[in-house]
Structure formats: structure tokens, C-alpha cells
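Our consortium's second objective concerns turning raw sequence data into structural hypotheses that experimental partners can test. To show how far this objective has progressed, the report includes one record in full. It was chosen at random from the queue rather than selected for favorable results. The single chain below, 707 residues long, was entered without modification.
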Amino acid sequence: MKRSIFCVLLVFMGSFNVLNAQNKVLKIACVGNSITYGAGMANREKNAYPAQLQNLLGDNYDVQNFGVNGRTLLKKGDYPYWETEAYENALAFTPDIVYVKLGTNDSKLQNRVHLEEFESDYNDLISNFKEKNKDVRIVLLLPVPSFLKDTTSIWNPVIKDKIIPKTQKIGYSNNLEVIDLYHLFMGKSGLFPDKIHPSSLGATVIAKRLYENVILKEGEKLKILNSKKIAINNVSNFYGFDLTDFKMDQIPCKIVRPKKVAKGSPWVLRARFWGHEPQTDIALLERGFHIAYCDVGNLFGGAEAVNRWNQFYADMTTLGLSEKVVLEGMSRGGLIIYNWAVENPEKVACIYADAPVLDGTSWPGGFGNGKGSPSDWEKFKKVYKISSDKEIGSFKGNPIHKVKEIVTAGFPMMHVCGEADKVVPVDENTRRFENEIKALGGEISVVYKKDVGHHPHSLKNPTSIIDFVLRATGYKTNFAVLPSPGSEYRSGAGWNRGKGWWYQMEDIDSLSRNSGKLDLLLVGNSITQGFGGSRTLTTFSPGQKAADIYFKEFNWVNAGISGDRTQHVAWRVQNGNYEVGKPIFITLAIGVNNFSANTAEEIAEGIKVSLNEIRTKIPQAKILFYGPLPAGIAKNSSKRKKYDKIHALIADVGKLKSVYYYNVLSDFEDEKGDLKDNYYGGDGIHLKPEGYTIWANHITTQMEELR
């Protein structure tokens, strides 16, 4: 499989021991049940997560699927994995990495009676793989949630409360990595058509998570046990990770160590409520972050709390943790994370605040709409030397009073809040803070949870929080630049008889090979697909009339696939036959499907990778480069802002040879700057037939000028 130089370097630099001195291919075994096998999904040979992982990793890896439908980890289960040929083949494969995804079927009624043997059976499985390869890296995958309501079948409470804790304990006792797929799919029932098995798009989620795990670049382990400054009290199990309780200068502290430390030794300093809603911390531990805690209870972010954290930070960085730290604070923890950050802006990687207290007069003072806490308010006043309530008007020690300094510091911020919070009212804290930050030109991301109060904190699915932290610290994988095939399979894509992504690609490839010399090749997503043409597997073509009028003199092929992102176009160009027809002109309109998952900067880089693949594979073509077509009905909508930012980042490619860059927004907007409703559908993305007329006219006009 061919790879662009850029992407080869990207994969190589991010991988651990990708190749040894003999250029050995790394062997990965995916052991599991029907979810690993790919049951229930179309074209499972190409869409099951092991196959998708193979495509993401490339030729330096050999990923094999050893999943078998209906199988249990339990030897006494109704259909034990131990009795399968796939199990024997997996052992004979002598893998370098093993991903084990078993446990789902063990939650069935007939298998639950044997769960006391789950740990011993799992340990035997681990031992058998280690006998084949003493250096094997074994990674345990927690089961995905079940959305079934049948208590006798695969039952989510058993998965959540029994299978998962047992698996985490096994990972801890064997010092093995554990990946939490359970929380990764919370709130994602739409990815489970039969309530049990992930769809092909769900398999993509798993494949991406495993890819991140494979390429984790490992750093040095923290020498905490050798430090004379630390008085260790206890080492225990924190959801499968080593938790060390210790004291520094008699102050209670904690640190949880990842199984594999990410290069650079990133870490999180958490304030208050240790272990509450731990899913974010667990996910970051999986990715190589340390999670630390230094007790500043009842100090309300005052001078003593800041001084404690100053010393703790100095000691932790001396031990080897990174110079920039992620600050995490829930509720009253908001006071210390922001007050410390204002004093130490150069040391802050980012801030994640959850229902944070930002104004002590709101809580614990209770001078607004909240009830407050009289006992805590008295403690608060002592910390800040406020002798009476009459002095609070002149008190400026809250984070809400330090917005200017926070904006100047420029560290990334994310808040998660319940809109119905009556303990720490949103309007007196985060919303006021957000408005003041933005008024001064600062940036902050806020997730408001509708109809949720002060509890529960965090998000059941912490993906958005994790992505925020990873981006802020430089550890986020940009999948927009990593060429990979699509996995879409849906009737709403305008595909005949539900034919999925691979059929669409093959149909386009056939046309590219057999249509002779091409005047025009249209490359893109559903908007491009809407031009119709000679495609045999598409049904919805709102732009067909425009194409019949404007492209009637051309020999052209439509290479648009609904749902495609930048990475999919790059892969299609690499692995397809688009160069066979020697197209004179190529249009490239891509990027809008990346909007929900990627930042503008990530999308711009992905677009450039797709463009580079076309220039490399078809160097003689003149490329009409549109980036994403206009998006976002309203001029000030979030889609439009992202569109504008992307185009500001990609405009420079118009200087490249044979690339002609166009921002066609002015062709589609009205005098107010909004997209015209006779050109665009209500989603602010897809064109109506009249919109296709405008675009087709632009394409042919440019072709005439450039001939």
C-alpha cells in the first residue's frame, strides 16, 4: 500500500518499536467474540475493527482477526472460546500484541453462574499467550455496553458491575494495559443496530482507539518510589492502575501511574473529590498520563492552597513529570485551579473544570440564587481574612475577578456544567465567566447539560473531554491526515440497495478504468456525489440536471462518496485507479464531514494531504480546489466560523503548481451574508438543484479559462 511521505513520517514518529533492526512486521492478534468477528455488519471482512486497524496501521503490521461468534471467556460457558480453532490459530500466530475482547457473552444468564471462575480462566488465557511469546504485549479490552432490555441475555448491569471490575482487577494483577471501550460507547446506542453489535461505524471507533494504543510513544517511568521526599503510605488498585498514597511535608497526596508512560510524561493535577466520576482520569491513564492529587481541602483556593500546589508541582516536575500540567477541578476545585493558574500561567497546559465554583459569594456565600453553605462560608471568610459580609464588595480573590489575567495567559479551557445546577448556579459562575472571557477576546469551550443539576459531574462518555486535553497537550492523533478507507453503510446515503462504501469505491474505480480519456474527475463527498452521472449504485442526484446541462460536452466521472472525510479521499486516491483516465481537470471539494470530529487546523491539514495525494498520483491534472464548499446558513453560525477558518488556512495552496484555489462563498450568500435558501438545504451543507447550477457553472467557467 502506497503512503505519502507525510503520512509515513506521521505513523513512524508516533509508533513504538514499529520496526526492529531486521524490519520485522509487527503481528497483532485480535481475540474475541462476535464483536471482534464483525457479526451483523455488511462487508465484515473489510469493516470489522481488526480489518480497519490494519488499514490504519499499514504494511509494517499484520493484524489478524481471531474473533468467533457467541464465545465466552469462561471455560464452563455455553460456547467457550477455548474450544475454537481460532484460539489455536491465535496462539500459533505468536503475536507481538494481543487485544482480548471477551466477556460480553459471559453476562448471559446461563453463564453468570460461573463468574467466580472468570479471573482464573482469564489468567490462564494470558499465561498461554505468554508461553508462546514471553515478550508479548497483552491488552485487555473492556466490553462495550449492551443496550438490550432482556435480562436473560447479554445484560448491561452484569457487564458494568461484574465483568468490567473483574477485568480491571486482572489487568492490575498481571500489570497489563486495559482499554475502556465501555465508556467510549455510552450514549452511542445508534451505533448498535441490534443493541449488541457495533455497526461498521462503531467498529471504526474501536479501530481508531486501538490505533492510538499501538502507536503510543513511550517515555521514562516516574521514579516516585525512589524519592526521599515522599513518605509512601500505601499502593493500591485504581481501576487497574497503581495508586500510590503518600505524604509530602505531611500533606496527603496521591499519584496514579499509567501502564505505559507517554513520551514527555504528561500529567493531570486534580483538585478535590478524588475518584468521583473517574472515567476521564481512567481514559487519560490509558493514554500515558499520570493523575496526581495534593490535598487542599477547605482552603478554597487561597494563598495556602496555592503555596501547597507550588511545592507539589516543583516536587513532581523534579521527579520527571512534564513542565506543563493539566488542571482538573470539580465544584469548589474551580477556585484552586484558576487561582493557581493565574499565579503560574506558564506551567498550565489546559484547564478542565466541572461545575466549578468561580465566585465564592455565589457558593458558599449564597448571595445569589444558590442556597450556599453557611459553615463553608465562614471557613471561606477565614481563608481570605474577610471579617464580615460587608467586606465582600471589595473582595477580588475569586477566579471571576481574574478574567483579564486568564485571557492574557491564553491556556485552553473547557467547562462541563449542568444547566439546572442550584448549588453552583451556572449564571453566577460558568456562564458569567464564559461571557466575560469571550468579551475580552478569549476562548473557552463549554458543555451545558440540559436538565442536569450539580450532579452528576463529568460526562458518561468523556470523549469530548479527552479530545480537549489531548489537543491541548499535543497528544491528539489527527485522523484527518491519516489515509484510511471509509466504513459507511446506510440507506440514507443515496446508495442503491444500501450498497456500502466499498461498493461505491469499486464502482468509481471501474468507471475510472473504463471510461477512456477524462476531461473531468469530480472528487469529494455527498455534495459531489449529488451530481449523479454514470454511477450505477447511487440513487439520489439533485445535481443531475445541472450536470446534464453544464457537463454534457465532457467525458467525466463522479468520484464523490457520501460521508467521506479527508482521510477517505486520500486513501481512495492512493489505492484507486483515478489516474488511468488521465483527467485533464479534477475538482476537489472535501472537509465538511470532518467538522464534527476535527478542529479547523486538523481539517486544513487533512485537506492538504488529500490534495497532495492527487498531485502526486495525477501530476498532469489541473486541480480546481474548493476545500469545503460553503457551510452554515447563518453568517455567524459555528459551521460558518469553522468554514471561514479552514479557508484562511488553506488559501495558500493556490500558489502550488496546477492548483487553482476558490472560495465560492460569495456565489451562494445573500446581502446579509447568510446562505440563500434556494441554493441550500436546511442543514447548511447540502445543495439544492439550484445550488448545483451555480457550482456547475463555476466549474465549467474555470475550465474554459484554464484550457
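The partners drew two points from this record. The chain has three domains: 17-214, 224-476, 485-706. The two ends are 34 Å apart (CA to CA). Both points have been shared with the crystallography group to help prioritize constructs.
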